[in-house]
Structure formats: structure tokens, C-alpha cells
Specification:
The complex is a heterodimer of chains A (about 160) and B (about 110). With about 160 residues, chain A is an all-alpha fold. Chain A folds into 2 domains: about 80 residues, NADH-ubiquinone/plastoquinone oxidoreductase chain 6, subunit NuoJ (Four Helix Bundle (Hemerythrin (Met), subunit A), Up-down Bundle); about 40 residues. Chain A contains 6 helices and no strands. In chain A, α1 runs antiparallel to α2 and α2 runs antiparallel to α3. By secondary structure, chain B is mainly alpha-helical. Chain B has one domain: Helix Hairpins, CATH 1.10.287. Chain B contains 4 helices and no strands. Chain B is elongated and about 50 Å long. The chains are: A mainly alpha (about 160), B mainly alpha (about 110).
Chain lengths: ~160, ~110
């Protein structure tokens, strides 16, 4: 029973901070809400039996991506610019589109019968490492190449005129 | 809705990730700040990760495939944010603003 209450609390926290991460006007508050939301997602990963991915989520998303976003906010100084008033018509249109998307996906989810298998199994890091180096070796190498290209590209872009 | 969320079933995880995805799409459409758009993209990618792990737990016979996919999602999200933030800095340097309405021309 207590585990369900904690689960419900985590879900509520995640959804609330996810909404705050897009709704609040100040971008810095958006980034802080995103950090709390990502922490909630990491807790949910533990509920889904993937402790390794929960740790990776905290290290990569909270430790690297959120900090990089905060760095970019600090460097581009949007705190100093005054927030423009909300465009109510655009808000309404976006809300309508997102609401239709939500309703449509929810309807499909309710109508579908998912195959039910046992939740017991081998979730270990050892099995994951084996899968990375045998069955999904090619995507693994491709992702490492993508990361390398992204780093070089980001360096080239942010170096500005002096690199050209 | 509430009784669904209280149990840790596949449905509740799917409901959660659908809600998060819709919030992300809303942010993508409603915000004009480039950093806020990147934050919305992170929300969308995270909802996909939750979906992968939920299906991995409840619908897959071997419990490794979904986790491998989530590792790929996290790596690609890191690459995407890396490029996106350097574009933010470049745009700020050129236009003195990170409102995407200002970025109208393709020529740099």
C-alpha cells in the first residue's frame, strides 16, 4: 500500500513539474522545474526495475544536460530581458492541439489489448552489457560516432568567426 | 483517472507518458524562447523513455531490449542538446535575442 502511495506522489510530482517546466514565463524557473521532473522520471525508472538507467538518468540528464541548459541561459541572459505578455490566442491553439493529441492517444490506449507477460526476468547490467556487445553492437558504435560528430559540430558552431 | 494511477500497471505508465508527451508538444507550440523549446524536447524524449521501459517490463519476454533503447535515447538526447545549445549561443551572438521569431533568414 505504501509503495502505491509513493508511486502516486512521484507521478504527481513529475507531471506537475513537467507542466511548470513549460508554463512558467521565466526560463530559469523552467530549467529548475525540469531538473525536479527528471528526478521524478529517474524514480519511476526504479519502479520499472531499471536501477542502472535511473542512475544514468540522474548523471546524464540532471548532471550534464540540465547544467548545460542553465549555462546557456546564463550566457544568453534572457533573465535581463523583460518577459513579453502571453499571446492568448496562440496559447489556446497550442492547448487545443496538445489536448486533441492527448485525447487521441488515450483513446487508442484504452482500445488496445496489450500482451501480458511475466514481469520477472533478467534486468541486470550484465545482461545489458552483453546485449550491447553482441546483438546491438552496430547501433552502439553508430551512437558513439553520432556523439563524436555532435561534439565536434558544437565546438565548431560555438567557436564563431575565429574558426572560419 | 485516479484509481488507474494508483496501481503500477502498464496503463498508468502509458497514461503518464502520454500526459508528459502532450505537455511537451504544448510547450513546443506555445513557447517562443529557444531554450524553452529545448526543455520541451527533453520532456518528449523522457516520455518516450518511460514508454520504452514500461513496455520492456510488462510486454517483453527478455528484459534487456527496452533498456538498450533507453540508453540510445539518452545518448542521442545529449547530442541533440549539445548542438541545440551551441545554436542558442550563436543565435544570441548574432541577433542579441533567443526569440525564434527573430531568426527569419537562413543565411548566417
Amino acid at each position: 500500500m505504501i509503495i502505491d502511495i509513493v508511486f502516486f506522489a512521484i507521478v504527481t510530482l513529475t507531471l506537475t513539474t513537467a507542466f511548470m517546466a513549460v508554463w512558467l514565463k521565466n526560463v530559469f524557473y523552467n530549467a529548475l522545474s525540469l531538473i525536479v521532473c527528471l528526478f521524478g522520471v529517474a524514480c519511476l525508472f526504479i519502479y520499472l526495475n531499471s536501477e542502472f538507467l535511473a542512475i544514468i538518468e540522474v548523471i546524464v540528464y540532471i548532471g550534464a544536460i540540465s547544467i548545460a541548459i542553465i549555462f546557456a541561459i546564463m550566457l544568453s541572459q534572457p533573465m535581463l530581458q523583460k518577459n513579453e505578455p502571453r499571446n492568448l490566442q496562440k496559447m489556446f491553439r497550442s492547448l487545443l492541439i496538445a489536448g486533441f493529441l492527448f485525447a487521441g492517444i488515450l483513446r487508442t490506449l484504452r482500445a488496445t489489448q496489450w500482451p501480458a507477460v511475466s514481469v520477472e526476468g533478467d534486468y541486470s547490467m550484465k545482461a545489458m552489457g552483453k546485449a550491447f556487445l553482441t546483438t546491438s553492437l552496430l547501433p552502439f558504435e553508430a551512437v558513439s560516432l553520432v556523439l563524436l560528430v555532435a561534439i565536434v559540430g558544437a565546438l565548431f558552431l560555438s567557436a564563431g568567426k575565429s574558426a572560419k | 483517472m485516479t484509481p488507474v494511477l494508483f496501481s503500477q500497471s502498464l496503463q498508468s505508465y502509458l497514461l503518464l507518458s502520454t500526459a508528459m508527451f502532450s505537455i511537451g508538444v504544448f510547450g513546443l507550440l506555445a513557447r517562443r524562447n529557444l531554450v524553452a523549446i529545448l526543455i520541451s524536447l527533453e520532456l518528449i524524449l523522457n516520455s518516450a523513455s518511460i514508454n520504452f521501459l514500461a513496455f520492456n517490463k510488462f510486454c517483453m519476454p527478455d528484459k534487456v531490449t527496452g533498456q538498450v533503447f533507453v540508453v540510445f535515447i539518452i545518448a542521442l538526447a545529449a547530442a541533440e542538446v549539445c548542438i541545440g545549445l551551441s545554436l542558442v549561443l550563436l543565435l544570441y551572438r548574432k541577433k542579441d535575442s533567443i526569440n525564434i521569431e527573430e531568426a527569419k533568414e537562413l543565411k548566417g
